[in-house]
Amino acid sequence: EVQVVESGGGLVQPGGSLRLSCAASGFNVNTVYMSWVRQAPGKGLEWVSVIYTGGGTYYADSVKDRFTISRDTSKNTLYLQLKNLRAEDTAVYYCARGSSLAFDKWGQGTKVSVSS
Amino acid sequence: EIVLTQSPDFQSVTPKEKVTITCRASQTIGISLHWYQQKPGQSPKLLIKYASQSISGVPSRFSGSGSGTDFTLTINSLEAEDAATYYCHQSSGFPITFGQGTRLDIK
After folding, report:
1. C or N: which end of chain B has fewer Cβ atoms within 10 Å?
2. Interface with B, mutate which of A100, A103, A105, A111 (most B CBs under 10 A)
3. Would you write out chain B's pLDDT as a tens digit for each of its 107 residues?
């Protein structure tokens, strides 16, 4: 069964760091493009970052230079390193698998709260 | 940035009604437009890809149409389980963007 499971969220102070993980099963993370999408409380969906099969990466302007997407093929896991966190980064972070540029499989999400 | 504007923002509908949600792009995107359903407390689910391509396992009452800048998601014969927020998403260019969402309530 194709599945992605996020982990690593939590409560962090402004300026702090976190690393989110997305463990994949039923497919290899290096054979599809993978994205992170977030959803602030009561708000809509916001794309954060993508990593393509060739390793190319893109970021939303709001997180550029603070977040880093990566993958470990030996662990079949996608990561998102979050640094210099701000209150406006508070959200549920979803890992999503890309299929022909649509997101066909989403995880249950991991919650990140940035507060002092 | 390609802005996607959905209408309406909210709609209250009765079962068996036909529902139409529109998504307008700020510039032409071909057919690089996808639709998702998100129920409360759940992650989004892909309903339609590339404007009109059906997805395995999605009920046939969901259909999509459009190209260029104007797109439509149609739900025929609405069922109570269709109460959710619906989002469009464009993959034509970076940054990837989503519409603001359309919330459907069932009367």
Report:
1. C
2. A103
3. 999 999 999 999 999 999 999 999 999 999 999 999 999 999 999 999 999 999 999 999 999 999 999 999 999 999 999 999 999 999 999 999 999 999 999 99
Which residues of A touch chain B, with CB atoms under 8 Å apart? 35, 37, 44-47, 50, 58, 60-61, 94, 96, 99-104, 106-109
**CA pair distance A7, B4, nearest whole angstrom:** 30
Contact B49 A100 (CB under 8 A): yes
The distance of A36 to chain B (nearest Cα, Å) reads 11
For residue B97, list chain A residues with Cβ-Cβ distance below 8 A: 47
Q: How far is C-alpha B74 from the chain's CA centre? A: 8
CB of B78 closer than 8 Å to CB of B15: yes
- A48-100 tens-digit pLDDT: 999 999 999 999 999 999 999 999 999 999 999 999 999 999 999 999 999 87
